Amino acid sequence: MVYPMSEPVNQPTSTRLIDDAPWERYRRPYVRDLAYALACPNVLTQWLDFAPHENTHAISVHSASFWRAQFEAYEQRLTELDTTNDYQALTRYLLKRPSPNRLGFHFEGLLSFWLEDGFARKLHPYETLANNVQLYNGKQTTGEIDLILYNHQDKLIEHWELAIKFLVVF
């Protein structure tokens, strides 16, 4: 028996994401992934405060223009990684990380590589102080901090939490 297809839900209202995909120019998969991690559009554009009456620190989200600037500053290095044996350093870095085939861990690995490599090459001001810091309450793990960075430009210590989500459209 053939069942009629239901109407699609949440159809894209723009083809901007398809037309503006700078990561597609890279032929090596990990370089393409790294370019995507830097240039992909934000899903979260501002912090949603579910407890506005609690006294907490302000939380900010990097804008799409921030990430576009990071991509543009790193673009020449992406080309080097894509066209030289430097690709091996990226590959070794990613494969040494825990669970390299899980999406979230792979995304964290890509951004960690960019942070270390880009800082060493003076392409951004963010120095990694710590990553994947486990938080405990007694002997029980209660959470993890993805990245603690020192922003040399603004002279601030920053805490970055990373997340990646994707949508499969049929």
Please summarize the sheet with the most strands: 3 strands, antiparallel
Total number of helices: 5
Spatial arrangement of strands, main beta sheet: 1-2-3
Q: What is the SS-derived class? A: alpha+beta
Shape: globular
Q: State the share of residues found in helices, binned by percent.
A: 25-40%
Q: What proportion of the residues form beta strands (DSSP E)?
A: 15-25%
Distance between the termini: 21 Å
- Low-pLDDT sequence parts: 1-18
Q: Say how many strands there are.
A: 3
The gyration radius over C-alpha positions equals 19 Å
Mean pLDDT: 83
* Helix and strand element order: HHHHHEEE
In short:
The protein has helices spanning 16-19, 29-39, 64-83, 87-96, 103-120; strands at 126-137, 140-151, 156-160. The protein has 170 residues and is an alpha+beta fold.
Report on the structure:
The protein has 170 residues and is of the alpha+beta class. The chain contains 5 helices and 3 strands. The longest helix has 20 residues.
Key traits:
3 strands, 170 residues, alpha+beta, globular
SSE blueprint and pairings:
Elements: H1 16-19, H2 29-39, H3 64-83, H4 87-96, H5 103-120, E1 126-137, E2 140-151, E3 156-160
Helix pairs in contact: 2-3, 2-5
